[in-house]
Specification:
single chain, 303 residues, alpha/beta, UDP-N-acetylmuramoyl-L-alanine:D-glutamate ligase, nine-stranded mixed β-sheet, four-stranded mixed β-sheet, 12 helices, 38% helix, binds adenosine monophosphate
């Protein structure tokens, strides 16, 4: 089992879906990622929040064993994101992004974190993602990156530079098309791989996840759920299951990558069952094992 470092956003989210509405609840790319990955391995979180960040949120992560010493409290307000979803829960509409303390965040890893073997650059300013890569003393065994439309539009040059240095990218389907300027998802995945990452994982919400790894495609459907309340964080939770599982393996080979896509899908399937991290906070390791088995049944060919 190897340590997993994540740098990303910790947020207060306000979200409306056809099934309810929440205001200033715990969110953020690094939050969902760490909570999810903590079921598999030791996670070390580097992020920033403002003076208004409730202590209970920090404790929630620490209670799961997440190392939160790198969660710096800065002067100012915590990053805030507001979004809404219509009946098609696959696409979030951003209503408001307030970077606040994220605007001048300069992650400082400290000596012990600079040699972490697994690194996840969660959705955050690509300039910061590059900054973190530069701070690593040793090339991690596996580096993955996630991003979104906000950065594809605003920081494409920096994002391209970051992509040139990572092994894995996780991205949703609309954003993959946008980044590659290519409507066909298969071609888009290949084009993104051509930008650097050996492995491209395209998250497709209720339609599952598609992986292109060293030229070969692998696909896993989403778990068929009858009640989905809030898809916020599904992508980061997926990445947490994916990277957390890999960091816990002795060998990161093609078979492990395929299982990691299933674990990512398992974890994401829980997140969407409630708002914020509510469902995850009720999760037991046995639930993960049960749903992994259910996935196995769902996708196997033999009766
Ligand atoms: P996802 O897993 O893709 O649904 O990501 C949801 C999380 O991304 C939310 O909890 C937001 O706080 C966070 N988020 C939204 N916009 C940004 C942004 N521009 N930079 C970093 N994090 C963001």
């Amino acid at each position: 089992m190897a340590d997993l470092l994540v740098v990303g956003s910790v947020a207060l989210d306000s979200v409306e879906t056809p099934f309810g509405k929440v205001s200033e609840v715990l969110g953020g790319s690094a939050t969902y990622f760490s909570y999810s990955a903590s079921f598999f391995t030791q996670v070390r979180l580097v992020a920033t929040v403002g003076g208004d960040f409730p202590e209970t949120h920090r404790r929630l992560l620490a209670d799961r064993g997440v190392d939160t010493r790198g969660l710096q409290a800065s002067e100012g307000k915590t990053f805030r994101w507001a979004g809404e979803y219509g009946w098609d829960l696959n696409e979030a509409k951003t209503l408001d992004t307030q970077l606040n303390v994220l605007a001048d965040f300069r992650p400082d890893l400290g000596d012990d974190l600079r040699r972490t073997p697994f690194l996840f650059l969660a959705n955050i300013d690509p300039a910061l993602q590059i900054d973190v890569l530069r701070q690593m003393k040793e090339r991690p065994r596996l580096v993955a990156l996630d991003t979104m439309n906000f950065w594809i539009q605003g920081k494409q040059t920096e994002l391209r530079r970051a992509l040139g240095e990572v092994d894995v990218v996780t991205i949703n389907d609309a954003e993959a098309r946008q980044l590659a300027s290519e409507p066909n998802l298969i071609r888009a995945a290949r084009a993104i791989s051509g930008m650097g990452p050996r492995i491209v994982v395209v998250k497709r919400g209720e339609y599952g996840a598609l992986m292109l790894a060293d030229g070969a495609f692998f696909f896993v459907p989403a778990y068929p759920l009858e009640s989905v309340y809030d898809p916020t964080g599904a992508g980061d939770t997926f990445a947490g299951g994916f990277m957390g599982y890999l960091a816990a393996q002795d060998r990161v080979d093609a078979a492990a990558m395929r299982r990691a896509v299933v674990y990512g899908s398992v974890m994401a399937s829980f997140t969407v069952e409630d708002f914020s991290l509510r469902r995850l906070t009720r999760l037991k390791p046995a639930d993960i094992a049960d749903r992994y088995a259910a996935f196995h049944d769902l996708i196997r060919l033999e009766a």
